[in-house]
C-alpha cells in the first residue's frame, strides 16, 4: 500500500493531480497511443537495473522474451471454461504437477492456478470455512501469527472468519507455539505458518505446527507465496532450510506464487491441497440463475489465460538448472548483504532470514529517514512500520537483478547511515503528535488534507499528494492505531482514484 510502505525514488505521476483524459472522439494512431503510454510511465519505479529492492522479479531479457511471446499468444483466450479452450486445462495440469513435485506432494495432492498470492491465501481461508461448516462450526476462527501476510486478514474479512492473532517470539519472529496452542479452540478451522514470512524472511516451525494441527484435527496452511518456489533450490544448494512442504504431516495446503521467484508474469500463483476433498471446499458453482451454469476454481470467472501460458512457458524455458543458477545468485547476494549490514554497528537484522527478505532495524538511526536518504541516491527500499513486537525497519527483497548491486548498495547504505546520523530529523512536532494521537477512524475523511499538509504533502495540482521525503509521514502513521491507519489508507486510495 502506497501510503505506509512506499519510499519512492520519485513521486508517482498519479499523485500529482494530473487529470484523467477523456476518450478521444477520433481514435489515435498506434504511435500516438504508445507515445502517450511512454509519457505516463516516466515516473514509474524502474523494473530493470536492480536498484529496486522490492516489487520486481527480473530474470533477464531472454526470460522476458519467452514470457511476452506466451502472453501475447494466449491474450484472447478465456479461462472461464476450459472445455472450450482445452489447452488451458492442459497448461494448468502441467503447472500443478510441477508444483506438486516441487513441494514433495504425492498423487493425492491437487491444486488450482490462481491470480496471485492474495487469491491463493483467500481460497485457503474459504476452504477452511467450508470444511468447518461441514463439521458444524458456525463461528469459525483463524489462528494467525502477527507475521502472517495481510492476505489472510482479507480472506477472513471477506469470508466472515474471525482472526485470532498469535504472538511471535520477539527475537526469532517465529510463531510462539505456546500461544498458538493456548488459542486453539473448538471453533478453530485453520492455522497459518509462513515459509517464509515476507517481513523477516523467517520460516515458522512448520513441523511442530503440523503435529499440533494433526492432533487437534485442524487445517494447517503454509504460506509459501514468496518462499516455496525458491527455498527447495536453496536447500539443494546446501542452505539450512527446515522441511515446510507436504513431507510434513499435518500440512494441508500450501500457497506458492509463480509470479515471484519463478519469474512468471504477474497474475500467477498456485494453491495446493492435501487432497481433492479439501480442494472442493474452495470451489464455487452456481446453477441458480437464468444464464449458463457457473463453476469456478478461483474467485474470477472470465479471466485471462495469459499468465497461465506465461508461467508454463517460463517454467519450461528455465527448467531446474535455470532456476538453480538464479537461486545461487540470490543466495550469494543475500549472504553479502547480511554480512555487510551486520558489519555496520548502527544497523541490526531482525530475526535470521532464510532467504533474501531482510528487515533492517536500528537503535541509533531513524530508519524512515534512512529510506529517504537511499531514495535520494536512487534506491527503492520499503519502510515497514512497527507492529506486533517487530520494530520499524527498512525492508529489502533480493531478486536476480539485485545480485550484482549488493556492493554498491552497501556502500551507499553506509554513507546514508552517516548522513542521517549527522543530521537527524527533528521528528513530528508536538502539534502533529497531538493531532495523530487524537485521530480516530471516523475523523480521517475530514482531517485527511490537513494531516497531509502538516507532513509537507498535498501540494495541489503540481506538488503531489505525498511529500517527496516520507520520513515525517511514516513517523506519524507509525503512531496511529491499526484501525486509524486502515481508514487513512482507504482515504488515500479514494483521493488517488478521483475519477
Ligand atoms: C508471504 C506472502 N504471502 C502472500 C503474499 C501476497 O501475494 P500477492 O501480492 O501476489 O497477492 C505475499 C506478497 O508479497 C507474500 O510475501
What report would you give on this structure?
The structure is a single chain. The protein has 499 residues and is of the alpha/beta class. Among the domains are: 12-17 and 427-496, no CATH class; 71-314, Aspartate Aminotransferase, domain 2 (3-Layer(aba) Sandwich). The protein is 43% helix and 12% strand. It has helices at 2-5, 30-41, 61-74, 86-102, 117-134, 150-159, 177-183, 206-215, 230-236, 276-280, 306-342, 367-376, 406-422, 430-438, 444-454, 460-463, 471-479, 482-496; strands spanning 110-114, 141-145, 162-166, 188-194, 219-223, 253-257, 269-273, 284-286, 294-296, 348-349, 357-361, 382-384, 393-397. The chain is globular. The site of pyridoxal-5'-phosphate has 12 residues, from helix 5.
Topology:
Elements: H1 2-5, H2 30-41, H3 61-74, H4 86-102, E1 110-114, H5 117-134, E2 141-145, H6 150-159, E3 162-166, H7 177-183, E4 188-194, H8 206-215, E5 219-223, H9 230-236, E6 253-257, E7 269-273, H10 276-280, E8 284-286, E9 294-296, H11 306-342, E10 348-349, E11 357-361, H12 367-376, E12 382-384, E13 393-397, H13 406-422, H14 430-438, H15 444-454, H16 460-463, H17 471-479, H18 482-496
Parallel strand pairs: 2-3, 2-4, 4-5, 5-6
Antiparallel strand pairs: 1-7, 6-7, 8-9, 10-11, 11-13, 12-13
This protein binds pyridoxal-5'-phosphate.
Amino acid at each position: 500500500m502506497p501510503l505506509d510502505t512506499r519510499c519512492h525514488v520519485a513521486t508517482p505521476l498519479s499523485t500529482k493531480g494530473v487529470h484523467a483524459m477523456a476518450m478521444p472522439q477520433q481514435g489515435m494512431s498506434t504511435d500516438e497511443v504508445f507515445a502517450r503510454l511512454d509519457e505516463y510511465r516516466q515516473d514509474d519505479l524502474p523494473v530493470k537495473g536492480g536498484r529496486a529492492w522490492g516489487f520486481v522479479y527480473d530474470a533477464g531479457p531472454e526470460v522476458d522474451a519467452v514470457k511476452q511471446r506466451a502472453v501475447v499468444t494466449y491474450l484472447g483466450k478465456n479461462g472461464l471454461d476450459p472445455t472450450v479452450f482445452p489447452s488451458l486445462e492442459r497448461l494448468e495440469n502441467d503447472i500443478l504437477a510441477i508444483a506438486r513435485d516441487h513441494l514433495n506432494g504425492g498423487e493425492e495432492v491437487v491444486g488450482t492456478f490462481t491470480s496471485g498470492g492474495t487469491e491463493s491465501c483467500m481460497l485457503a481461508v474459504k476452504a477452511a470455512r467450508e470444511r468447518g461448516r461441514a463439521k458444524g462450526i458456525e463461528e469459525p476462527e483463524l489462528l494467525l501469527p502477527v507475521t502472517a501476510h495481510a492476505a489472510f486478514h482479507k480472506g477472513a474479512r471477506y469470508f466472515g472468519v474471525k482472526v485470532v492473532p498469535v504472538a511471535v517470539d520477539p527475537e526469532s519472529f517465529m510463531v510462539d507455539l505456546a500461544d498458538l496452542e493456548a488459542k486453539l479452540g473448538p471453533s478453530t478451522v485453520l492455522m497459518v505458518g509462513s515459509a517464509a514470512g515476507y517481513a523477516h524472511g523467517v520460516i515458522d516451525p512448520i513441523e511442530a505446527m503440523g503435529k499440533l494441527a494433526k492432533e487437534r484435527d485442524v487445517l494447517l496452511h503454509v504460506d509459501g507465496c514468496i518462499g516455496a518456489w525458491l527455498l527447495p533450490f536453496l536447500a539443494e544448494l546446501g542452505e539450512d532450510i527446515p522441511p515446510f512442504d507436504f513431507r510434513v504431516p499435518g500440512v494441508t495446503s500450501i500457497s506458492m506464487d509463480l509470479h515471484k521467484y519463478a519469474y512468471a508474469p504477474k497474475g500467477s500463483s498456485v494453491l495446493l491441497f492435501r487432497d481433492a476433498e479439501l480442494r472442493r471446499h474452495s470451489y464455487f458453482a452456481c446453477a441458480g440463475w437464468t444464464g449458463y451454469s457457473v463453476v469456478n476454481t478461483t474467485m474470477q470467472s472470465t479471466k485471462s489465460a495469459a499468465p497461465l501460458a506465461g508461467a508454463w512457458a517460463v517454467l519450461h524455458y528455465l527448467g531446474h538448472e535455470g532456476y538453480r543458477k538464479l537461486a545461487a545468485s540470490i543466495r550469494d547476494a543475500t549472504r553479502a548483504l547480511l554480512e555487510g549490514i551486520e558489519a555496520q554497528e548502527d544497523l541490526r537484522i531482525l530475526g535470521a532470514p532464510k532467504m533474501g527478505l531482510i528487515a533492517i532495524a536500528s537503535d541509533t538511526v531513524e530508519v524512515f529517514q534512512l529510506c529517504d536518504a537511499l531514495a535520494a541516491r536512487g534506491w527503492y527500499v520499503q519502510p515497514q512500520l512497527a507492529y506486533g513486537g517487530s520494530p520499524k525497519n527498512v525492508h529489502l527483497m533480493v531478486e536476480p537483478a539485485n545480485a550484482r548491486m549488493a556492493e554498491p548498495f552497501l556502500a551507499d547504505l553506509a554513507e546514508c547511515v552517516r548522513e542521517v546520523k549527522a543530521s537527524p530529523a527533528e521528528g513530528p512536532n508536538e502539534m502533529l503528535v497531538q493531532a495523530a494521537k487524537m485521530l480516530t477512524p471516523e475523523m480521517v475523511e475530514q482531517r485527511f488534507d490537513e494531516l497531509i499538509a502538516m507532513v509537507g504533502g498535498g501540494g495541489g495540482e503540481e506538488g503531489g499528494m505525498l511529500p517527496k521525503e516520507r520520513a515525517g509521514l511514516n513517523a506519524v502513521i507509525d503512531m496511529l492505531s491499526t484501525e486509524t491507519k486502515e481508514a487513512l489508507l482507504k482515504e488515500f486510495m479514494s483521493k488517488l482514484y478521483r475519477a
